[in-house]
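Record pair follows.
FIRST:
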Amino acid sequence: MTSAAVAQSSPIESDGIRNDTAPGKILVVDDQRNMRATLAMMLRGSGHEVDEADSGEKGKEMGSTGAYDMVLTDLRMGGADGIDVLRAVKQTQPLTEVMVMTAYGTIESAVEAMRLGAFDYIQKPFTEEELLVKVSRALESRKLQGQVQLFAQEFKEKYHFDNIIGRSQAVRDVLGRVVRVAPTDAIVLITGESGTGKELIARAVHANSRRADKPFVTVNCAAISETLLESELFGHARGAFTGAVSARKGLFEEADGGTFFFDEIAETTPSFQAKLLRAIQEGEVRRVGENKSIHINIRVIAATNVDLADAVRERRFRQDLYYRLNVARFTLPPLRERREDIPLLVQFFLDKFNKKMNAQARLGEGVMEQVVQYNFPGNIRELENMVEQAVAFSGGGVISVDDILPEAPQKRAGPRGRALADIVDDAEREAVSAALAAHEGNRERAAEALGISPTTLWRKMTRLGITFEPR
């Protein structure tokens, strides 16, 4: 292909493109020297700073450095092609805009490029004006993304969200509610699967409350027996039990003026829940072995990975305590429902463990795509452990799929090579649809027939894409 692929147009200064377009730094990738030189000349003439790469491999290397606002690449090249360049750039520099050039008859490839994250494509032959208009739009998009990232960083600094990573709508919704609820003294209930970051949200609520300069005290209810839990929380008098050689102040008193975080609240017994309810409602505690009550001023945040409504129906959790805790509720989405955040989290943990291990590990080509497709039953905690393991086993070099996903269930193939997770989803989808059909769309009766709660049924329907209206 030669420079004839670019049709010359009349001068474009009158259209304002050259004067109105903010200069950007652009990488042109094309293995045809004449075409590459013509494009570079046009772009420089419009005030842009331009570098050139004479092959897809060189384009991947240069485009992944983060030095460019935009990459303009030919789609068809010998060796690495434009799709390879696009993937390499977007994997390491997601904010860099990529535009592909395509010849007649390769529109399907251009559409595939758009699906993989290209900003736009331009079909040859094109005019100089057409090129510069599209480049202008790409650079404007890059500028806006940069402003959003800057705002996001300022938002994090202002609201102490430094360790909460993500830009998905689900994460933005949760953080928006944190900002609104934190300044109040409302009791907060945080629900979600294990490893979704419930304690991080609890700390964010405390950090943005009027109690931020007071203690944040946390207790894992599942890790302590009922007897010890009561003594730890309420304190005890001297001689209250064997070994109580002196009086001891409880954690409730330690948290006075601040925030108390109950992790895994569903793991407590009904008898302990009754004492906890009284302490929350009355604002008073009584040390074990004493008759005198002590006034406390605390904000309560509770978290659980259990459906408390189910636990109430099964008489494992007191209904009155459930209603007392369920004031400001946050439901954290599992990682599989916010896959767009996975690359950000992977990079965050890579940076963390590279620094910790004095390494320079990075993901190999195509690894990120497989990581994003994994379902993460352990959520963010599992992802963090996987990245730490990968950095260690890779020797600080290139991380392969086996380094980061050594035991991923999705790598095990089922019948005809299908992933095990897909087979399970299909079986669940069939069972749920059959139950709904048998009960004419009545979710409560369908849930009862399946042996699950209506809430769990609704979640499964949402995840599996099932819609069924009652008749």
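SECOND:
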Amino acid sequence: MNLFSVNLVLALVWTALTDSFTVSGFLTGYAIGLGALWLTQPLYGETGNYFMRSVRIVELAVYFVYDLVVSSLRVTWDVITPQDLSCPKIIEVPLQAESDLEILLVTNLISLTPGTLSLDVSPDRKTLFVHAMFAEHPEEVIEGLQDGMEYHVRRVFTA
């Protein structure tokens, strides 16, 4: 059994012992199980990748929530003010993500963020076409997507 499976079992055991079958109870059990596995790490040998990946997943989630809030506020401000601040464009974003899962995650997270929408991926999987609501400077949008969402997704999948 890999450490992720052990951590899930520990989280389920925690929820059963505390009789709190809720999402917050499960997440608490998962965090406690992660801590227990980290403390007993020398017993399992080389397991640093699991713990580093867990930290990177949390970093991706925090970055996504931050980006979601900032872009939501920007779109909201554009909607409620009388002046139209948007400058929509379709831009080509060169992709550094290689696997199908990385590309899928990048495109979906971009589409979930207000003000941007992933339209298509080129047949060679090297270019992502994105409709950006605020693209006065397309180079800045491309740089922001590459250095932001794509960077964090790629970090999750690299060793």
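COMMENT: The mean pLDDT is 90.
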